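Hi all, long-time lurker, first post. I run a small reading group and we've been trying to get comfortable going from sequence to structure in the token notation. Rather than ask abstract questions, I figured I'd post a concrete chain and ask someone more experienced to write out its structure so we can walk through it together at our next meeting. Sequence below, copied exactly:
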Amino acid sequence: MKRHWIGGLAGLVIAFILVGCGAQGATGQVESLSPDEMRSHIEENDTAFILLNNTEDKEDRTENIELVEEKISSIDVKEINAKSSAMLDNNLKPDDLGLKDIQFGTLGIYEDGKLKDYVSLRSVDFPSEDSKEKTLQEFIDNNAS
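-- Answer (accepted) --
Happy to help. Here is the structure in token form:
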């Protein structure tokens, strides 16, 4: 009997934790897509946030993904790395996926398949990391409505 009571209490605590996490609101995420998934996503969605990486360095790619995930709260971002084996082995360019006019190392927003705006994530484009983070946050705030 005691085991059932403890098990029930543990289940109740877990339920409260899950409800509490959900009550904080939805959080956005960055999801890496294959070339075919990216092409379909651009074609099937009126609005799409796209992170276009172009690096063989896993650490650089992870830094960009984590930076974007820190700043987004209620939007989902799709990511593709132009230097991935799926892209290189098939000799694919971003244009082949419907990603026209976007630069490497940027977060862009597409509306009806056309690039509306983008923001650089390259440190060389900013005087400081704080400036880069502030610019990214402003971009998200202005485009996430």
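A couple of things your group might point at:
Residues 2-23 form the longest helix (22 residues).
The mean pLDDT is 84.
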